[in-house]
């Protein structure tokens, strides 16, 4: 029960508005002390109390940094796509993966980065609505997953080409690369749906005593479902799209390095044993060179 103050005096520890409310018996019976403080706030003060400042204090330095990233990234990735698309010689399985990576980067640069800057410039209200909120979340999730899977697929291709060159002739092909890239993007789209469905538009309710409903000016794109669901999805996607790919890539490049080191050691041993002049050694050396040339040729088809 809130004690009623002396209405004829001015208490410096209590705002004039709250003191006036405390002197109004009908209001005191319906509002708590916190609700009275909220009632006395104007709209901007109320929004800042719960949502923070409307504009991020880091907007200017982040904007300059993003602009530099945009210029370098956009030019580089657009040129990559143009070169691969317009030159048949460049349409190799490896370059297909690079093309896919460039597309994912361009999606972030051209669509995702402006949305990020807009939110930093004006945290609320989010003017793009529920569809825009879904699109923003879906875009970042999809391109993130696609980039990771593309790099993983490229690593697998390189492993096959170096360690299993005979098998590479049938596996490392343009047709196979196109199928893998299509599968990568399809999987990325599907895996982006769960996290996207947890986000939406959140609006603050009007302060008690100022009406019933929500404040349209407080609309923000954020997590609207239970936090435990979000944490569960994050844990699963982190395992599937970070730890497993990182482990896979690390193991594959370790095996590639071991294979190349093994071949190099064989050459050194043959040279030390004085077999460099031997015809059979020359044949084996020529076969190794031919195999490397075939691998390089297959990667460039």
From TrEMBL:
<keyword id="KW-1003">Cell membrane</keyword>
<feature type="transmembrane region" description="Helical">
    <location>
        <begin position="96"/>
        <end position="118"/>
    </location>
</feature>
<feature type="domain" description="G-protein coupled receptors family 1 profile">
    <location>
        <begin position="76"/>
        <end position="301"/>
    </location>
</feature>
<feature type="region of interest" description="Disordered">
    <location>
        <begin position="278"/>
        <end position="301"/>
    </location>
</feature>
<dbReference type="Pfam" id="PF00001">
    <property type="entry name" value="7tm_1"/>
</dbReference>
<keyword id="KW-1133">Transmembrane helix</keyword>
<dbReference type="InterPro" id="IPR005390">
    <property type="entry name" value="NeuromedU_rcpt"/>
</dbReference>
<feature type="transmembrane region" description="Helical">
    <location>
        <begin position="138"/>
        <end position="160"/>
    </location>
</feature>
<dbReference type="InterPro" id="IPR000276">
    <property type="entry name" value="GPCR_Rhodpsn"/>
</dbReference>
<dbReference type="GO" id="GO:0008188">
    <property type="term" value="F:neuropeptide receptor activity"/>
</dbReference>
<dbReference type="GO" id="GO:0005886">
    <property type="term" value="C:plasma membrane"/>
</dbReference>
<feature type="transmembrane region" description="Helical">
    <location>
        <begin position="232"/>
        <end position="256"/>
    </location>
</feature>
<dbReference type="InterPro" id="IPR017452">
    <property type="entry name" value="GPCR_Rhodpsn_7TM"/>
</dbReference>
<keyword id="KW-0807">Transducer</keyword>
<keyword id="KW-0675">Receptor</keyword>
<feature type="transmembrane region" description="Helical">
    <location>
        <begin position="58"/>
        <end position="84"/>
    </location>
</feature>
<protein>
    <recommendedName>
        <fullName>G-protein coupled receptors family 1 profile domain-containing protein</fullName>
    </recommendedName>
</protein>
<comment type="function">
    <text>Receptor for the neuromedin-U and neuromedin-S neuropeptides.</text>
</comment>
<feature type="compositionally biased region" description="Basic residues">
    <location>
        <begin position="289"/>
        <end position="301"/>
    </location>
</feature>
<keyword id="KW-0472">Membrane</keyword>
<comment type="similarity">
    <text>Belongs to the G-protein coupled receptor 1 family.</text>
</comment>
<keyword id="KW-1015">Disulfide bond</keyword>
<keyword id="KW-0325">Glycoprotein</keyword>
<keyword id="KW-0297">G-protein coupled receptor</keyword>
<feature type="transmembrane region" description="Helical">
    <location>
        <begin position="180"/>
        <end position="202"/>
    </location>
</feature>
<keyword id="KW-0812">Transmembrane</keyword>
């Amino acid at each position: 029960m809130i004690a009623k103050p002396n209405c004829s005096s001015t208490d410096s520890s209590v705002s004039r508005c709250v003191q006036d409310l405390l002197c109004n018996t009908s209001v005191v019976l319906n509002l708590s002390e916190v609700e009275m403080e909220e009632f006395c706030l104007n709209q901007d003060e109320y929004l800042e109390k719960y949502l923070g400042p409307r504009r991020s204090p880091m907007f200017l330095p982040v904007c300059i940094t993003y602009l530099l990233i945009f210029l370098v990234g956009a030019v580089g990735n657009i040129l990559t796509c143009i070169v691969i698309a317009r030159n048949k010689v460049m349409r190799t399985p490896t370059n297909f993966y690079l093309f896919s990576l460039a597309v994912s980067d361009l999606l972030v640069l051209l669509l995702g980065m402006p949305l990020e800057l807009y939110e930093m410039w004006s945290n609320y209200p989010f003017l793009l609505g529920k569809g825009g909120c879904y699109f923003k979340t879906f875009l970042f999730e999809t391109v993130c997953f696609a980039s990771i899977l593309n790099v993983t697929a490229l690593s697998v291709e390189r492993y096959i080409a170096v360690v299993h060159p005979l098998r590479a002739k049938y596996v490392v092909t343009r047709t196979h690369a196109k199928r893998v890239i299509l599968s990568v993007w399809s999987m990325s789209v599907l895996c982006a749906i769960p996290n996207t469905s947890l986000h939406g538009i959140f609006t603050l309710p009007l302060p008690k005593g100022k009406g019933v409903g929500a404040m349209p000016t407080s609309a923000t794109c954020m997590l609207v479902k239970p936090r435990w669901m979000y944490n569960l999805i994050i844990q699963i996607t982190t395992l599937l799209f970070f730890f497993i790919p990182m482990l896979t890539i690390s193991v594959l490049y370790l095996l590639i390095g071991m294979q190349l080191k093994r071949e190099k050691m064989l050459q050194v041993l043959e040279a030390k044993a004085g077999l460099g002049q031997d015809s059979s050694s020359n044949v084996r050396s020529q076969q190794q060179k031919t195999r490397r040339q075939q691998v390089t040729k297959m990667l460039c088809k």
